[in-house]
Amino acid sequence: MVRIVRATQAEIDEAVTALRDGELVAFPTETVYGLGANAQNPAAVHKIFEAKGRPTTHPVIVHLDSPKYLHRWVREVPPAAQALGERFWPGPLTLVMPRAANVHDIVTGGQDTVAIRVPAHPMAQQLLTAFGGGIAAPSANRYGRLSPTRAEHVRDELGDAVRVVLDGGESQVGLESTIVACDATGVRLLRPGAVTLAQLRQVVGEVQLGASGDVPRVPGSTPTHYAPATPMIIVPADEIDTRAEDASEGGRRIAVLAQRLPLKTYPSVTWINAGRRPDAFAHDLYANLRTLDTAGCEQILVQEVPTDDEKWDAIRDRLLRGAAASELDSADLSTTGALGRI
Ligand code: TXA
Ligand code: MG
């Protein structure tokens, strides 16, 4: 596993200068790479939306190096958020709280809340501390696409739109942070991640599931997210071999993301065995899907993941959304074509 922990002082200086100039900087976190801008500069944050092709109504997470400066961004810290921050920060958790008055609308999507995360990756910490302010950052991918877990994914997808890409090697977790909203009505899990529901409940007791309101507050929760361009379907574990064999009949090229080796060799099947350990599966998930997406296959078959361990929940969530996006695409094939959608 390649993991580069610290940047040189020259790299950090260059990134901080870019942020102060209102430019974009991609940086590693332990979940996925972020596409960062100075959260106090609305014009800079606007560039994030342009680079991603993302609607400006969708809010972005503000990253801080420490909860010490929370009060600059948050009107009040609900007791549950306080407890969760103390337990899981720095780490793969984002907390949505009532916003402070001076937080820009482009950051919050005009909502009355702001999402805050204190990442643990040493290079993210280095950057945040040197910058000395909040960095607004979504995942550093084009809107609706797979999140990047390596610096080269960012360069491939966003190219010149980003002034600096800090290379921290492979993101350790590999899936986006757990998002939890805390307000007067209670605690709500908006997006599953490496911090699990059981872990959250251990700290705060009751946790509701899913978004509460009518607005799509977490666009990552719409089914068009986390999708490879190649149509992807989920297949029951005991059918993965037969389905791969059938689908590849006549030399059709088929990709498989499984948790074990194939029972035999299928000539036109590209098979990745991502193993049975959820942590390792998550770590490699987006890189594996990128590999399969560019393997020239007509379809990606993904072996369904176990239901007996909640560590698979965030993985299942992303796979289901990726597969649902494929369904939407194929319903739309006559007009756009599945491969033409970015
Ligand atoms: O792991 C992560 O969370 C990565 C790294 C870079 O920190 N970031 C990330 O950002 O995944 P993004 O924008 O791809 O997903 C963040 C999600 C979005 O779906 C956004 O709608 C939601 O957080 N979000 C941001 N502010 C919010 C708010 N005030 N209320 C509800 N959801 C919010
Ligand atoms: Mg994202």
Please list the strands of the largest sheet in the order they lie side by side. Answer: 7-1-2-6-3-5-4-8-9-10
So, the CATH homologous superfamily of the largest domain? DHBP synthase
| CATH class category of the largest domain | Alpha Beta
Q: Can you write the helix and strand succession as a string?
A: HEEHEHEHEHEHEEEHEEHEEHEH
Question: Would you spell out the secondary-structure blueprint of this structure?
Answer:
Elements: H1 9-20, E1 25-27, E2 34-38, H2 42-52, E3 61-63, H3 79-88, E4 93-98, H4 105-108, E5 113-117, H5 122-131, E6 135-136, H6 151-158, E7 164-165, E8 178-183, E9 186-191, H7 197-204, E10 208-209, E11 232-235, H8 240-247, E12 254-258, E13 269-273, H9 278-293, E14 299-303, H10 313-331
Parallel strand pairs: 1-7, 3-5, 4-8, 9-10, 11-14, 12-13, 12-14
Antiparallel strand pairs: 1-2, 2-6, 3-6, 4-5, 8-9
Helix pairs in contact: 1-5
Give a description of the structure.
Helix 1 crosses helix 5. The chain is α/β, with parallel strands linked by helices and 342 residues long. It is globular and about 60 Å long. It contains 10 helices and 14 strands. The strands form 2 sheets. Strands 7-1-2-6-3-5-4-8-9-10 form a 10-stranded mixed sheet, with helices on both faces. Mean pLDDT is 91; it is low at 332-342. A hairpin with a 2-residue loop joins strand 8 (178-183) and strand 9 (186-191). The chain is 31% helix and 17% strand. The longest helix has 19 residues, at 313-331. The protein starts with 8 loop residues before the first helix and ends in an 11-residue tail after the last helix. 48% of the residues are buried. The protein has 2 domains: 9-209, DHBP synthase, CATH 3.90.870.10; 232-336, Rossmann fold (3-Layer(aba) Sandwich).
